[in-house]
Amino acid sequence: MLKLYTYHNSICTQKALITLAEKGVAYETHHVDLFTNEQFQPWYLAINPKGVVPALEHDGRIVTESTLICEYLDDIFPSPGLVPADPWARTRMRQWSKRVDEVLFDATRELSFSAMFRERMKAMTEEQREGRFRNTGDPIKRAKLISTYELGAESPYVYQGIGEFELAFKAMEAELAEHGGPFLLGTELSLADINMMPYVARVHYLNLLDLWLEHRPLSQAWFARAQELPSFRACISEKLVDDDFEKMHTFGTKIREQVRAQRDAYVTKGS
Q: Given the DSSP bridges, would you call strands 28-31 and 2-6 parallel, antiparallel or unpaired?
């Protein structure tokens, strides 16, 4: 029996959901409400001590960390294969996973928070906000949260995230050109693509994606193709409700010119 602990607009959860959809296996879900801090309830911390989603339960065993969940699913359900058999291709796939885990997760979180979740925290009482800061459990994550709450899109962490997306899309355009696409590793869909899809989608829904892809036609084509995949539609776009789309677009648009200026500054500094 497979059970996935989820939140419908969690970018990490979306990776696992797309992988499950591509495998065509049956599973149950348990929704964990991140905005009522359900992830910090003792029952869930017993499942995932980090207090994050997703977590996968398989025959009584728990797997955490979305990248590991996706690879685990490919191991236990090998067809269709999403991890290349060729060691070089597999290493390239894991380089994309590493980029997502080490920099793009934080970059997407800071952009999302500066655009929309910051507004939700403004509506909280001071006691509720302080509780949210305390519950992060990680001093570095707490510092980023406080900075982004106080400074919004002008936070240095947002600037850093904008730069990481610039580097990621530069690498994506080069990868697609070198290997001919239509997917990141060539002709076959892999976990490299699946790991990237939710992050690119979030920036798209925030009405910011074109700031990076305006002059990157191969990356534009990759994302257009990703959006047509049944697994993408079922696990990202169709799981979101109208209110999700509206809020992401509205709040993302509010910081759009700040993000544009930050990206231009980053590109100019690096040139």
A: parallel
- The pTM of the full predicted model, rounded to 2 decimals, is 0.93
pLDDT tens, residue by residue, 154-207 = 999 999 999 999 999 999 999 999 999 899 999 999 999 999 999 999 999 999
In angstroms, the first-to-last Cα distance of the chain is 52
Q: What is the DSSP letter of 215?
A: T
Domain spans in the chain, listed from the N-terminal domain onward: 2-76, 87-270
Alpha helices per DSSP H over the chain? 11-23, 42-45, 66-76, 87-99, 105-112, 118-122, 126-134, 139-151, 156-179, 191-205, 210-213, 217-228, 230-232, 242-254, 256-270
Sheet holding 2-6, edge to edge: 28-31, 2-6, 55-58, 61-64
CATH architecture of the domain with residue range 87-270: Up-down Bundle (1.20)
Burial (0-12, 13-18, 19+ Cβ within 10 Å), 219:
buried
Provide Rg for the chain, Cα atoms.
Answer: 18
